[in-house]
Amino acid sequence: MKGIITIVVIIAIWQAASFAGLNPYILPAPWDIFLAFVDSVKDGSLLKHSWASFQRVAIGIILACCLSLPAAVILALNRILREFFLPVIEGLRPVPPIAWIPVAILWFGVRGDAGSYFIVFIASFFPLFINTFTAVRNIEPIHINAARSLGAGRWHLISDVAIPSTLPYLITGLRISIGVGWMGLIAAEMVVSYQGTGLGYMFQLNRDVNNPADVMVNTITIGLIGYLMNAIILYAEKKIVAWKQE
To answer: Which of 91, 103, 128, 167 has the highest CB neighbour number within 10 Å of its CB?
Structure first.
């Protein structure tokens, strides 16, 4: 509720500044942005581009989960493999997602969505890997020993000890991955026109034709979708790891 009050106050000050003569090409008035938003909803362009970007980020993150989670578990449990592969992962991890865009263009071209999937994958892989790796390495031996002393078998050790211990780390990694993957995708769409769709493409197009109101619509939509994805993960966290909240 307090956040809504803050937003209303900011919009009111913003609109007042517009009435006072704020240059609309620097910062359009909130009312003009609202009218541009209504128009983009009516003609279906906002939904089309938003859905295209959402599909790309979802597929990229799913691919990252399929590879990073088992890789992190294997390296956390196997010292020999860890010594071989962990330095490589740590060497690639500092490379920012936007720096992989030229590589994606070289490998996958500018047609189709493969390049966008790759950018989201590479951006999401490392946060998921690091959090999962840390989670597995930080499972308390005393918890495992206590469960074994009570007669727990391998399956119960996994379901009742390992998974509950690692879930908070995994969810945190997923939240970070969604945010980084989403930012990487928008940057990639601004550079490469993936089938002429996506919020990043729409953002760049409106900038090129000097349409500041629609640029702000794209900016706000990008932020809202990112906020909603994070809110969904937070809601799921409260349901899945309710004991952590307590």
So the answer is: 128
Phi/psi at 223 (5° precision): -65, -40
The CA-CA-CA angle for residues 15, 207, 216, to 5°, reads 30
Retrieve residue 49's tokens: 């581009």
- The correct CATH number of 29-245 out of 1.10.3980.10, 1.10.3720.10, 3.40.50.280, 3.40.640.10 is 1.10.3720.10
Q: What is the distance of C-alpha 162 from the center of its chain?
A: 26
Q: CB–CB of 60/121 below 8 Å?
A: yes
Residue by residue, pLDDT tens for the chain (246 residues) are 677 888 888 888 988 888 888 888 888 999 999 999 999 999 999 999 999 999 999 999 999 999 999 999 899 888 999 999 999 999 999 999 999 999 999 998 888 889 999 999 999 999 999 999 998 888 776 666 666 666 666 666 555 666 777 788 888 899 999 999 999 999 999 888 777 889 999 988 888 888 899 999 999 999 999 999 999 998 888 888 766 654
Place of tokens 């003569």: 21
d(CA 99, CA 229): 24
Q: What is the greatest pairwise CA distance in the chain?
A: 75
What are the residue ranges spanned by the domains of the chain? 29-245
Instruction: Read off the pTM.
Output: 0.87
Residue of 114, 123, 88, 119 lying closest to 102 (CA atoms): 119
> CA 173, CA 132: separation in Å to the nearest integer?
7
